[in-house]
Write a structure and sequence with these properties.
Helices cover 52% and strands 24% of the residues. It has a six-stranded antiparallel beta sheet, covered by helices on one side. Helix 1 packs across helix 5. The protein starts with a helix and ends with a helix.
């Protein structure tokens, strides 16, 4: 009987952890939907919006480059920016063109914007916005106000970077 008790407690613990994860994920999905709903009102051109789990992608024509918003539970943050990938030479060319205009980009978007090489084929220009404190609580931290601010910030990235990249919406 004791083995059954241990197994029962382990199953109950797993069920509680899964319920908590789904609870948090539901709030993340609501936040992504709120950003998605607010964004088109802010943009002048038509963009394709796609969401996937804790990510929102805004496509300006081709698949890449794309603008994105990602909720990062691990770092308790929302990342807003631009990502592109492709052949290593093309990705490096695009990264160089952004790096050459770093002063201009940071003057318009702020000093918290970083250019990061994730792989030889994938770069991103983004900023990380801390959300919440020591304890991650999506229901409390991912507010409608933050969703509106995030949509505004994402739209600002598009307004600044689209002319630099020469993409069309």
């Amino acid at each position: 009987m004791p083995a059954f008790s241990v197994l029962y407690k382990a199953c109950a613990l797993c069920a509680a952890l899964l319920a908590s994860a789904f609870w948090h994920h539901g709030h993340i999905l609501q936040f992504i939907a709120a950003v998605r709903d607010a964004l088109p009102r802010r943009l002048e051109k038509h963009y394709e919006l796609r969401s996937e789990s804790s990510k929102l992608f805004i496509l300006a024509g081709d698949e890449l480059p794309r603008y994105e918003l990602i909720v990062r539970r691990k770092t308790r943050s929302v990342e807003i920016g631009l990502a592109f990938e492709g052949e290593a030479s093309e990705a490096a060319r695009r990264a160089r063109s952004l790096a050459e205009r770093a002063v201009e980009i940071q003057a318009q978007l702020g000093p918290g914007v970083e250019l990061e090489e994730q792989t030889k084929r994938r770069f991103r220009l983004y900023e990380r916005v801390p959300v919440g404190g020591e304890e991650w609580r999506p229901k409390r931290d991912l507010t409608s106000t933050l969703a509106a601010q995030s949509a505004e910030r994402l739209a600002r990235f598009i307004e600044v970077l689209e002319p630099i990249l020469g993409t069309k919406g």
